[in-house]
Amino acid sequence: MNRTAYLVDGFNLYHSLCDAQRDFGRAAKWLDLRRLCDGYLPEVGKVCSQRATAAGIWFFSAPPIHKSPDKQARHELYMRCLRGTGVNVELGQFKGRKEKETDVAIASMLLRIGHEDMADTVVVVSGDTDLAPAARTYVDLFPEKTLIFAFPYNRANDGLRRLAPGSFKMHANVYFSSQFPDPLVLPDGRSIPKPASW
């Protein structure tokens, strides 16, 4: 059994979802992240030659305080959906129009997972090369563990792939088949409708 943790770069994934919507003309932003990650466990199992099971999903983002109130409300609503479906949400901040803290937060969690033996494999959902130093450190410190990058649609990166040879691309069609229902009914009975503009 291979314990697999997912660390999701929210902004890298968000821009990938926007690309998928633009390229295929289908809504993608109402994404059920748990369903998406669980759907890739067989791919992880092939890399590790062992059945992969979920050991947790961490989503890293920041409230878009520089955007319109409507966009801020949609972001907050989506965070409620993620938390309600068991995803750990870690929020940074914006300074001006630049998002801060996310890369450092992902790097910190990556090292914590290794140090505390929280998983056998970590899948980083991102194509951001700013994560390369953390990836190199993780591979050096924990050679018995596996690091994989799951590159969001249109975000593949050869440099990161060389650091983690088992890495793979996510496909836009998986976004479309991994949407929350509308409305999403949380375990506590709360019903959350999909925003009309999504």
Characterise the protein shown here.
Helix content is 41%, strand content 23%. It has 8 helices and 10 strands. It has helices spanning 10-24, 33-39, 41-48, 69-84, 102-115, 132-141, 158-163, 172-176; strands at 2-9, 52-61, 88-91, 93-95, 98-100, 121-125, 146-151, 168-169, 184-185, 191-192. A 6-stranded parallel beta sheet has the order 3-2-1-6-7-8, sandwiched between helices. A two-stranded antiparallel sheet has the order 4-5. Helix 5 runs parallel beside helix 6. It is globular and about 45 Å long.
- The shape is globular
* Total DSSP helices: 8
Mean pLDDT level: 94
Note the gap between the termini. 38 Å
**Strands, total number:** 10
N-to-C series of helices and strands: EHHHEHEEEHEHEHEHEE
Rg, Cα atoms, Å: 16 Å
Which strands sit side by side, in order, in the main sheet? 3-2-1-6-7-8
Beta fraction: 15-25%
Largest sheet: 6 strands, parallel
Brief synopsis:
The chain has helices at residues 10-24, 33-39, 41-48, 69-84, 102-115, 132-141, 158-163, 172-176; strands spanning 2-9, 52-61, 88-91, 93-95, 98-100, 121-125, 146-151, 168-169, 184-185, 191-192.
Core attributes:
alpha/beta; 41% helix; two-stranded antiparallel sheet; 198 residues; globular; six-stranded parallel beta sheet; 8 helices
Structural topology:
Blueprint: E1 2-9, H1 10-24, H2 33-39, H3 41-48, E2 52-61, H4 69-84, E3 88-91, E4 93-95, E5 98-100, H5 102-115, E6 121-125, H6 132-141, E7 146-151, H7 158-163, E8 168-169, H8 172-176, E9 184-185, E10 191-192
Parallel strand pairs: 1-2, 1-6, 2-3, 6-7, 7-8
Antiparallel strand pairs: 4-5, 9-10
